[in-house]
Amino acid sequence: MKRLGWLPVILIVVSVLVSPVIPAGLAQQFPSRPIEFVVPFAAGGGSDLLARAIARMLQEEKLLPVPIVVVNKPGGSGAVGYTYLASKRGDPHHIATVSSSFWTTPLVGQSPVSYRDFTALYGLAFDTFLLVTRTESTFRRMSDVVAVAKQRPGLVSVSGSAIASDDAVVTYMLEREAGIKLNYISFGGSGPALVAALGGHVILTWSNPGEVLPQLEARKARALAVASAKRLAGLPDVPTFKELGYNVDFAQFRGVVMPPNVQADAVRILADAVGRLCRSRRWQNDYVEKNMITGVCMRPDEFGRAVAAQHELYRKVFAGLGVIK
Predict the structure, then answer these.
(1) Which domain holds residue 292?
(2) Beta bridge partners of 157
(3) What CATH number has the domain bearing residue 55?
(4) pLDDT digit string (tens) for 33-45?
């Protein structure tokens, strides 16, 4: 019997093709109902943190007159959530977070939609990665990981959010730089991936600083290295991979997109609200500095160019790693 796992996705794609464009009058009344903020991953990860921070602050600062409802739609390395958003053609009352799988999942042929099927709204942050293990682990420093992985390739397990994601890319980069082979395991989101590491089901995990900081502060987890050019101000004792002799410097690009064919007036209204938030002191304090990220404020036109450039970056990285031709 043939599997029908792709049937729901196919049906959604059909709905994208037949969905009518929202009438011109809608943009003049926008927003006229609650805005659905789609997170294409499970709760607890970096995309979820971003969406909930935006939704909470936009409402508390009264930057929009309607509620923003965060909805998690995990599955297919982001394909389920992004395909759902694409089906809302022309409707500005739906938005979604952007992270690595927005680009990488289509590149490896695991999604029926790509960055070209969306309207760029706002670019917000570059979020780096920590390689983390639980406190009880015998791996106390990066040299311990490399030594064991060289002796027994594939023994050291590392959890991540998706096969086609930034944590998978940074795993490939570390393997190439250190001359080792790790056992990468996808858990459908960085939140579940962290839970797996803390529970001892895997040895290592990749986490954005904001995702794992509570566990580091509670001494439930230990960071071995950070994939940034310099040490993080909030974690001064964690060395960079470059300090340790491995040229691994990588960050996750975060932003927000809308469905295709959204009218310009609605894009402008929502971009103005997100822009005011992005430039606020509260955003800098409560999101950028708290989560130890590099904040940016890219309006739709600039973000649209950056989205296309990021696609080309991933294409070259994946081609170099042999993931795609």
Answers:
(1) 34-127+251-321
(2) 183
(3) 3.40.190.150
(4) 999 999 999 898 8
